[in-house]
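Collaboration report, partner site 2.

Our partner group contributed sequences for two proteins of shared interest, and the home lab folded both. The records are reproduced in the order in which they were received, starting with the first partner submission.
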Amino acid sequence: MHKARLLGSLALAAVIASGAAFAAGPQYKTAPIDTVYGQGVINPYGKFFTGTSYLQPLVGTDLGVVFNASNVTFEPCTRTYWHSHSNGQVLFVVAGEGRHQIRGQQVEIIKTGDVVIVPPGVEHWHGGGPDTWMSHVAFAPVPENNTPTWLDPVTDEEYNAPAKPHQNQQPK
């Protein structure tokens, strides 16, 4: 009788504990890829993402420059919402394989070494692959000069659309 009560109490405690962990939000996982600059912490801007991403700031205006650079690591299927930047954004993929799309164009597969250039005001999204982690360094002018506009979440249908390999653009 006491064993049954003890086991019941332990089972109830386990259920409560698992619920508390679930309610606490995303759980930190270690990326199985070399993120080069470190994985960082669970992204504080997660409300603009589907899934879990990690942020490691690299360069900020406190260092006397007029741009920000951060390493962002995406778990599989994690992606940003549709968004734009008033003065554009450049993404340097440093590890893994992911996806990127400019609204109205085909989804692109991005991988280590790819450079994605997003012109000012262009709506786009980026994230990990369906089964792969991806890490990129995002460069953009400081927020005072480059307002991000966050839009709607990327649907599963948009995310899973047929994808083609990304073609790096060459400077002129």
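Second partner submission, folded after the first:
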Amino acid sequence: MDVSRPQRTPAGDLPQAEGVAPRQLRRATVAHPLVISHRTNMGTMPENTLVGIDAALADGVDGVEIDVRATRDGRVVLLHDATLERTTGDARVLVDVTADELATVRTRPIHGIGPQPVPTLAETLDHIGSRAILVIEVKQRGIHEAVAAEVRAADAAEWCWIWAFDPEVAIACRGALPEVPVGLNLQRGSLERYGYAGEATALAVRHGLSALSMSHDLADEATVRAIHRRGLAAYTWTVDEPADLARVRDAGVDAICSNFPPRVRANLGLSDGR
């Protein structure tokens, strides 16, 4: 996968998401990369939970990343895996579970935090309420319209991003929510796994996406510069170690997603890391 040698395209020809605040696309209004909490501070909190969101906000993050899938009856909820097993101990696949059934399920105790409900996207949008960017990673095909409906119902388009690994999902979300910036997640071999060949930047520009969000091992200065030349933002994840934080910061990325946001803020000189 080559994201470091883009073909040149006139800047005026680059598609851009409409109606999006500048801070959501590039670093135009801040002097440092945006700090994004990965899976609601999963390094110290239960992932994809409202208590995790509260912890991230208390840490002073610019945004909180969550993962979403849909229940059997189409309710969009926060869950990373296809099954409930890892986070809740319930062996069922989410698509076999109704929203009412899921309402009785609780997460496993972790990091000293007791069992938590599995939130819906609607509850999450209401809870965060524009206090930070909500980065919605869509993990499942065919739910883009449901995600779009929830974002619009909450009047949340101005403070949401969409991310997806699957190009089909990213493109569908771009069509369903043209007013929200959509980023394509990348790691080595990820495009090929979904049946796409060629260059990630060209794919993103062709379909009007706003960003490439890459595994931190891909985030070097040449790659970031190439992404920026195509009018895209460059984000990176999941960055937890000091050496990696320094490297991606120096590469010029626009946002850093981490399990431990205080570490990122300390590295950027925004806090003491506690």
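Feedback sent to the partner group on the second submission included the following. The two ends are 37 Å apart (CA to CA). The first strand starts at residue 34 and ends at 37.
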